[in-house]
UniProtKB/TrEMBL annotation:
The lineage of its organism: Bacteria, Pseudomonadati, Pseudomonadota, Gammaproteobacteria, Pseudomonadales. It comes from the Bacteria. Pfam families: KfrA_N. Residues 8-106 form the KfrA N-terminal DNA-binding domain. The keyword Coiled coil applies. Residues 153-194 form a coiled coil. This is KfrA N-terminal DNA-binding domain-containing protein.
Amino acid sequence: MTVELSDHEIFAAADAVLASGLNVTPKRVREVLKRGNPVHIGAQLDRWWAQLMQEETRPALLDKAIAMLWDQALIMAREEATRAIADERQVWIEQSLQTEKTFVGQYRALEQLLTKESQVFFGGDLQSRRLIEQMRERLRQLRSYLKCADQIVLSAEENLKSSKRQLTEVQATASKYQRQCVKYEMELQALYSELLNRPIGASSMTLSESSNDQMGKPVIDFWPLLSMAQASIQQRLNELRRPPTQVGIGAGAEEVARREGQLEVVRHLCYEFSRQANAYQHVANGLYAEFSSIYWGGGKKDN
């Protein structure tokens, strides 16, 4: 805070200016003091002049001159004060203009920020509405897909029920076919035993008559092979019954080998009968395994 000059300081400075022969003015007093407000100095000089006039008696001409100087000093003081005030006013105006520029810049920056935020807000709101519409459309599609999936599930359940019915029928057929295969094997074994136990002089008509008893049975498929086997075996048995005297001398080893070959043929035929029966059994087991896997697989999916 600036400390105002005292009366004594201003009066002493005025005396010094007056002693130097110069006109006492607020500006010159301020130059001597190096500080002070011109207005305050001018007011104190008025008191200094009043005291000076009271202390000395001067001629009228001197008083007039002094009055003129005083008036001139007042004018100059007013001008000095006016200039000081104008300077201060100019400084204040410049500061005000700078403050106004700063305020305008801040206002414009704030306005731009508000505009940007408004665009972002309304743009985000539009994007949100579009996203909601897309989600609603997706939900409608999912509902349609779910309806189609329900229809597919119902159709699959119907197909599964139909497959189970078919599997039951196939299992029944497979069981029946398996029983028939067992029956085939038993009948084939009986035929083979009958073939081996038949008397050597029996005719092939006996076997044909036996075949008539089996008419309408699945084992009829084996009759051509059995007939051929019986004829071949009968022929070989007749040859084996020939007396040894009919065999040439020195041919004993060949005859034994021939008969062993014939027996091997018989064993081969018996093996062929057994192999065909096993083939029927294998087919039946395969069908049963296939349809069992379908049944159990369908049961797991149904669960």
